[in-house]
Amino acid sequence: MKYKEKQGVCFFVYNNNQLDYVDLLMLAARYVKEYLKLPVCMITDNGTYNWMLESQSESDIDTYIDYIKITNDEFKDNLRTHKDSPWSEFTAQFQNSNKHKIWEYSPFEQTLLMDTDYIVKNDFLLQSFNNPGVSMYNNAVSTRNDPPHRNEVLLYPSGIKMWWSTVVYFDRSEFSKMFFDLWDHVADNYEFYQFLYNFPGGLFRTDYCVSIAVHILNGMEESTTIDNFDDMPMHYISQDDDIIDINNKQDWICLGCDQKENWKNILIKHSNLDLHVMNKRALLRMKPKIVEMFNDS
Amino acid sequence: MTPEIIADNGYVIIAVNSIEYRQAQCCAYSIKSKMPTASITLVVPDSDIVDEKFLTGFDAIVQLPFKQHTNRRQNDWQLYWCSPYTNTIALDCKTLVKDDQTTMWDYLIDHHSIAFPTSVNDIRQHKIKTKHQLHLENEYDLEVVYSGMFFFKKNAESLKHFKMADVYFQNWNQVYGEFLKAQHIPDFFEADVLHTLVANHIGVDVTTHHNILSYIDMRYSVTVGVLGKIKKWTDNLTVWSSDTGKIKIQNYAINGTIYYHENEFLTDEIFSEQESYYYNVTK
Question: Are B227 and A221 an interchain contact pair (Cβ–Cβ within 8 Å)?
């Protein structure tokens, strides 16, 4: 099969009534262009696409988005509770049940699939293009250097290790195809696998789907069949954390919330490392400053 | 006193009562399912009282040559004299072997006179740092070894270990008092602690470079780490088994050697599945 380009980055972008994923995409794409210098493909639906045409300037779209793929998938009902600091909560539909279809949708031979709240601040991920198969993070660390909640380390206390679907690198090998087929299968039989792997219910999480797919591909053992970006942890700010200021493109000042006593915060300088900004509204608040910074440079 | 050598290499398993004979037999089934030509010997206090039904899967049965301690592992020191092999791997009877150990044998024969694992793993194959390991390493500067599976040749170097074990194992309570502080003395006879003391006091290097004798230790899997303290792992973790000899604990397939510790693990169903797989493989 012929692909449009050798390497590139894909984002799934489906708006809901609370979060403007188009805005998030435009921020994430700016960083991809700056540090990875790769083409960007937006995978979206008609409604979100039309909103992008309305809300973003033509020049920005032309500059930051190289390919647009309109999908017409049906989504599972998946209401997610988001937080913006410990003191503010909102719910919104989270449309992620077609994420495994990236195999079909990506126009690239080697693809980095990223969530729109993942901000690339260096070229580390370019190394993954040398790996055969699939790569994902399987450990994470907060800006306070704390591990994530225990359900995001193991699916449950005596369960399997969690892999993050926030960033997925894959090539077009048979092995990668098998991985996405398995992901599809787990997503299709999510309730059965929830019973078998005992992960928390409620929200449909692709992290659980990929974790189970990895476990099965590893022969139900812990193994190194899937690359974990050379054991590099994924740095994140949680939904309880905030972004206070942006000194420059790479140098951000965050507010790290103590998970046990969440009225206690510390200021954290976060430089040069990629950052998964789980508090999406915090990222959106910084949009004017980030846009200005990119326009000035 | 030394029995006739029946093969160059083989496994010995001590069992001292009918529950343990059955466990040892299941262990033998598991070994022969993976290595049908392996030679396995059952070591018992009195071979005349062992029901014949327990002998399938074994190539020989031998008696403990000197004394019969009711705690099976307290008899470890006699293995040197009762093993009918030139090179021996001793296994605890509450063990199942789920992989082909041929290359491990080759490595051990080429490189070691006597060898023990220096760590054990949980079901994820992650190294477990046991409490007694921390104490013995930090407070006494001892290199800790585990003894659910260990290797020895019949030669002068390994003989030193067994001669010292003779004294230590028979007088284990006094040995604890002599070498350990009160707060670190185990409540019961602990073969791992005794073998550690013997190995360190003799000074023979019993460790392997790649720790290839390491096994899954379910006793420690549930007292260390994320599972917290659970009295019996069989009460909390689910075991899935099949008549193809496979064992899964929770979501993890068990490959390698597992020391399951709890008698409750070996249900009639698991035993008969291991048995039928053994018959299928060896028929």
Answer: no
Strand A67-70: give its sheet, edge to edge. A67-70, A40-44, A5-13, A108-114, A164-170, A134-137
Per-residue DSSP letter, A227: B
Tell me, what CATH number does B188's domain have?
Answer: 3.90.550.10
Number of domains in chain B: 1
CA distances from residue A268 to A145, A252, A253, A260, B55 in whole angstroms, order as listed: 10, 8, 6, 18, 67
In sequence order, the β-bridge partners of residue B129 are none
**pLDDT at residue B1 is higher than 60:** no
B151 phi, psi to nearest 5 deg: -120, 145
pLDDT (tens digit per residue) in B154-204: 999 999 999 999 999 999 999 999 999 999 999 899 999 999 999 999 998
Q: Tell me the pairing of strands A5-13 and A40-44.
A: parallel
CA dihedral B223, B229, B233, B235 (to 10 degrees): 170
Structural domain boundaries, residue B100 = 7-214
Using a pLDDT cut of 70, give the percent of chain A over it: 100
Number of domains chain A contains:
1
Q: What is the pLDDT of residue A88?
A: 93
pLDDT in tens, B215-270: 999 988 765 555 556 678 898 889 999 999 999 999 999 999 999 999 999 999 99
Residue B272: inside a domain: no
Contact between A215 and B251 using a beta-carbon 8 Å cutoff: yes
Note whether B253 contacts A219, CB cutoff 8 Å.
yes
Asked whether residue B250 is assigned to any structural domain, the reply reads no
Interchain proximity A157–B255, CB inside 8 Å: no
Q: What is the structure's pLDDT at B223?
A: 58
Q: Does A221 touch chain B (CB under 8 A)?
A: yes
Alpha-helix residue ranges (DSSP H) falling in chain B: 18-34, 79-82, 102-111, 131-140, 156-170, 172-179, 191-202, 218-221, 233-236, 268-282
Q: Which of B93, B102, B91 is nearest to B152 (CA)?
A: B91
Main-chain phi, psi angles of A18, to 5 degrees: -115, -35
Please report, for the domain that includes residue A144, its CATH number: 3.90.550
Measured between beta carbons, the chain B residues lying within 8 angstroms of A215 are 251
In a domain, B265, yes or no: no
Contacts of A221 in chain B (CB under 8 A): 125, 252-253, 255
Does the CB of A224 have a partner CB in chain B at under 8 Å? no
User: Rounded to 5 degrees, what angle do the CA atoms B118, B124, B128 make?
Assistant: 35
Number of residues that make up chain B: 283
- How much is the average pLDDT of A137-161? 91
Residue A247 is part of which domain span? 5-296
Reported as a single tens digit per residue, the pLDDT across B4-57 is 899 999 999 999 999 999 999 999 999 999 999 999 999 999 999 999 999 999
A:B CB pairs within 8 Å: 33
| Residue at B80 is within a domain | yes
